[in-house]
Amino acid sequence: MSENINAQTEQDLSEILQVRRDKLSALCESGNNPFVKTKYEIDSSSVDIKADFESFEGKTVSLGGRIISRRIMGKASFVGFRDGDGDIQLYVRRDDVGEEDYLAFKKWDIGDVIGVKGYVFKTQTGEISVHAQHIELLAKSLLPLPEKFHGLKDTDTRYRQRYVDLIVNPEVRDTFIKRSQILSEIRSYLDLKGFLEVDTPILVPIEIGASARPFKTHHNTLDMDMYLRIETELYLKRLIVGGMHKVYEVGRIFRNEGMDTKHNPEFTTIELYQAFTDYHGMMDLVEELYSMLAQKICGNKKINYQGVEIDMGHWERLTMVEAVKKYSGCDYYEWATDEDARNCAKEKHVEVPEDATKGTVLAELFDAFVEDKLIQPTFIYDYPVENSPLAKRKPNEPAFTERFEYFINATEYGNAFSELNDPIDQKERFEKQVEAKRMADPDCKSEVDYDYVTALEYGMPPTGGLGFGIDRLVMLLTNSASIRDVLLFPTMKPIE
Q1: Where does the pLDDT of residue 2 fall: very low under 50, low under 70, confident under 90, or very high at 90 and above?
Q2: Considering the entire predicted model, what is its pTM?
Q3: I need a surface site. Which of 8, 143, 226, 388 has the fewest CB within 10 A?
């Protein structure tokens, strides 16, 4: 039965496509090919008209947009019209636009792009409308809009054909408008604080030793392999060495890894670095920035995300040791040896490597017992040195680093350090990181970035650094469940 329905649907679609192409052929034969038009002057938008009707009433306006619905009633018609900002009703009457143009208009289709000039008025039912005095076909839609123009619901089709999604689902457009506003507000905030926006290379000559897997390409002229960057950190910190003491980059990042509702192979981050401050300075910046963004984008510091109220104006601060003790009962400072730590993990039914250190066990217990409890905004700081190769050690507790991550709704949103500026320590950590990666994967081409070590040897001042994902932040502030909802063109497997 379903096969018969699908066959009928395909036949109906084929007939619609043929009808629309026949209409285009007729237009071309009569010298009215809509695709030859190069320009149409517009001076108003639907949103402005509806927001300030008193100023526009009786005024002649010129609009450009798309037919999304229509009711033809003999000598007059009502048209649902969508421009780049919103929707408005058009009233089209034969006596006003002329009999020839009206007859042509009646043959147009839903989805066609048109230009209209007319005056603003209210109908008897009180709906703000434009009374057309001239209409013009600017582009012929050869494919019908989906589901009789009531919206495109299938998520796979929405992501693959974002252009259709934007046409028929106005709320999708709102999400991406907010994304742009979020980026604008972040840039404005940082610029006012004296940060300089910079650009660093996307193609890099070595695969660095970090855990993320890169995409590999080849430069033909230089005859060398290159890699798409997995972070912007090391180049930005080179600039700190060079005396540019407050820098940031909004950068596209590429990681050849899995995909889910929170991960896409290419995504956008912002990394910023400030000389002469530390990770506490970065905490203050995050709290102020996120609170401001919630107020400006959502109108309130308390926002709703997927049914959960999040108070962006209140942040908790816990060390990793405090958080693990709070939620698991395990106290790092009661472990005299690494074996004590491993035994504690075993009692809690948490698997750890046979040679796990106290720091490694602490991080595993955090993953097992803490992260899913962090619903309200929370800073977790002072991470074990084992999983923080770029962070500076705490002077009074060298087993820990001056690092924090912050969590909202049980999800990590950003990462920050008091940056390591000791070139000898940094070199040793890099070499251990690369060695461990090559031990795990003998084919690994990972290398130490010795040029970065050289940069540190010239002297980098004490520096606070922060990185966070723009996409997850947009998800949070637009109440979007998947990262694909906030990427205009997410990565998709091709349809065979």
Answers
A1: very low
A2: 0.91
A3: 8
